[in-house]
Amino acid sequence: MKKTDLPEIAGGGLIARRSFLASGLLFATAAPALARTVDPGNATIVDGRPDWMTQPGGDGVAYGLPSPHEAHVVRHAIPYMDESVGFAPWHTPIAAQQGIITPNGLHFAVHHNGLPDIDPEVHELIIHGLVDRPLRFTMDELLRYPIVSSIRFLECAGNTAANALSFTPLNFSVDVISGQVSGAEWAGVRVADLLNESGVKPGGKWVIAEGADAGSLTRSLPLSKLMDDAIIALYQNGERLRPAQGYPVRLFVPGWEGNTNIKWLHRLELTDVPAFTRDESGLYSEPRSDGTIEHFTFPMGVKSVITHPSGLQTLPEKKGFYEISGLAWSGHGRIARVDISADEGKTWARADLDQTPMDKALVRFSLPWRWDGKPTTLLSRATDEIGNIQPTRKEWKSHYAAHAHNHYNAIQSWRIKKDGEVENVYG
Amino acid sequence: MKKTDLPEIAGGGLIARRSFLASGLLFATAAPALARTVDPGNATIVDGRPDWMTQPGGDGVAYGLPSPHEAHVVRHAIPYMDESVGFAPWHTPIAAQQGIITPNGLHFAVHHNGLPDIDPEVHELIIHGLVDRPLRFTMDELLRYPIVSSIRFLECAGNTAANALSFTPLNFSVDVISGQVSGAEWAGVRVADLLNESGVKPGGKWVIAEGADAGSLTRSLPLSKLMDDAIIALYQNGERLRPAQGYPVRLFVPGWEGNTNIKWLHRLELTDVPAFTRDESGLYSEPRSDGTIEHFTFPMGVKSVITHPSGLQTLPEKKGFYEISGLAWSGHGRIARVDISADEGKTWARADLDQTPMDKALVRFSLPWRWDGKPTTLLSRATDEIGNIQPTRKEWKSHYAAHAHNHYNAIQSWRIKKDGEVENVYG
Predict the structure, then answer these.
(1) Is A398 inside a domain boundary?
(2) What residue of B is the nearest CA neighbor of A317?
(3) How far is B395 from chain A (nearest CA, A)?
(4) pTM
């Protein structure tokens, strides 16, 4: 069957992986005639070879870094944030990522008062308040407890705020719009193990977690979640936390909004009621369209975003084959499915999920697409294992006040223009 | 129940996780009286706080690095390798690792002729030989194919050669003895997808893979494995390959000895028979005790090693509780179980496995241990899903010639001396 005749599984050119792969040459070009079979001594042809095939290479290094040819792949400080807000969000370049793990050097980070340089020999974690025994832990003591690890996503409550706030869609990259989400393997001590040691008095229902930076970000969290799957995180992707991720120790609360994962964690205080700290009464509460305020809205909603192709990219050729690929996640559990539309939402096809979806972790989804060269809009819509479905922007906006900007998880629409340029639009 | 009375599940002080965690205070110390509940404005107590709690922190960076306090956690160039061999192995500091992902900067690496600096705009991958259509791919073309990702281990065929070769056990760290193994998420294009495009002529049974460094490491691999689960790897842990891992492209052959995962991959040649290259006829073949040679011994055997406690460490206190923890893997599939002995192999207890074991990936195992302060030996023994069991050193040595040093997967014995020092011994 000719490539142009492959059957669609949904409108706009979405096709099944099997027929895509069976459709003959895609992107390769014919190689020059190479009749030579390998010489067992493998040292024959030298003429015409580049320097790196003929001269010994350079020295190794004790701690490796990316290739200088990839120096453009860095975190982005977002351009539209008002400096006076007093914190700097660094976004992961998710358009340059594949798989579900973000390298530590590119993990998104939001600092409310800069990066503290904490001496791990001095820093302590204290557990106090409504406990039977107030306890304190040096870092060396914490490291002696059983360490557990899980691959999880982490997302800032304010991720994709640009789409929530701006009345007209801003022509930014996916990194800038939605790069406050990353994936990593987090390892540390179960909070439950430490609270079982301190004991919790009958009235203890909330835990107030405070960071040791000068911003001392402070959040109140229900005890039940901390006893369920929260950890005192000491490691990220196999090495101790980076400074921007809370070195030497942070709270990690799987699936919950980023700011509750208190960095540079200093103390956990057991109380009977939440503290209504500045951070939770102000920035991290959400005004609704009915005039009320949502407090303590912890889990991040089911969400997906296509990263290839995405904003500010240009499709290299017309009427060509492309692999649509992106990331999905849910703070409520595993992703069950992701659907893609290539015809502005009229029809949808179920995307392939790469690897088995893990609990509260990123999932990579993909589907082959044959672009016919006409303008269209690409959308993705995730569903999680408990049945939450990603809303449209209109649905999301109807629930929240006009100036609400946290927990924005609406479907992302990417407009494919006639010239192949990709642009952020509202569906 | 008192901590000292906890029942053993095997000799030498191995105890069940549940009784360990229920045994009261382990490593915490009493906290000073802290009656204060949190101030919602969280800006109350300043006196006595360290600088980092009272002064704004430093700037973020576009590409993050580890804390300066962790500057000692680096790859080790192994001290016993003869410089004249012409390559430098860099070992992962596995004793400093938790979880199953190795950060890219610490992934082990062996270079046979230094680190080439390859221009990704010039480099091409060529598929030729017994194919219907010889093909070539620029890196940009490869990046347009469907990308798949999996978390896998990678191990050098020569990992733990020190224990294979030395008649007396060398007193090294686990990093130096067994640090040529790492775990990462590898992403790239299925080799099968590209070979389906080139077509394979009926006689094509082997694939000769050659690297583009001046060492041009070359291996012959059976077509069946490449069609099964091998990928043309472009990404590692979410970013493009590091130079030491083959930037811009390497072959990744899950579970097979490290050197077959050809770095800086330049060409794949389909042939009817293996090429018996220098690399596979010499260094990467194994002399047996019966005088014959094993060629093409690709999968890495089932293996485990305790990383905490391990060689050159010292247990901080006598008669104390410790978490035994380590890594296990098998080139044949998933790890089914890991058993630990704390009494020199007389009795064994099944270790806890952290996370669900993945195919050809590292698994973290652990078990609580109450050391009674007497000298003893700790051992771990892994079993994979098809029933392979890690051999004893004696069993391993009986199969191979005295100077064999590849594919050493025997049980590692760590001697715990009276003063708490940990030493490499042969069990």
Answers:
(1) yes
(2) B144
(3) 33
(4) 0.95
Q: Read off the pLDDT of residues A136-167 as tens digits, 9 standing for 90 and up.
A: 999 999 999 999 999 999 999 999 999 999 99
pLDDT for A49: 80
Domain coverage including residue A171? 106-277
Give the bridge partners for A186, in sequence order: A150, A236
Dihedral of the CA atoms B29, B32, B33, B37 (nearest 10)? -90
Partner residue opposite A30 with nearest CB, options B20, B135, B216:
B135
Residue A17 lies inside a defined structural domain of this protein:
no
- Interface A:B, Cβ pairs < 8 A: 437
Share of chain A above pLDDT 70, in %: 93
| Nearest-by-Cβ selection for B74 from A62, A73, A323 | A62
Contact B277 A42 (CB under 8 A): yes
Q: How many CB atoms lie within 10 A of CB B13?
A: 22
**Rounded Cα–Cα distance for residues A172 and A242 (Å):** 28
Residue A413's φ and ψ, nearest 5 degrees, are: -110, 130
* DSSP class of B88: E
User: Mind telling me how many Å the CA of A398 is from chain B's nearest CA?
Assistant: 31
Write the residue in A31, A148, A235 that is nearest to B136 by C-beta: A31
Q: What is the CATH number of the domain that holds A381?
A: 2.60.40.650
Rounded to whole angstroms, the maximal C-alpha distance in chain B is: 80
Chain B residues with CB under 8 Å of A366 CB are 146-147
Torsions phi, psi for B104 (to 5 deg): -55, -35
Which regions of A143-230 does DSSP assign to beta strands (E)? 148-155, 181-190, 206-211, 218-222
ipTM of the prediction greater than 0.90, yes or no: yes
Among B239, B264, B322, B340, the strongest candidate for a mutation testing the A interface, having the largest count of A CBs within 10 A, is: B239
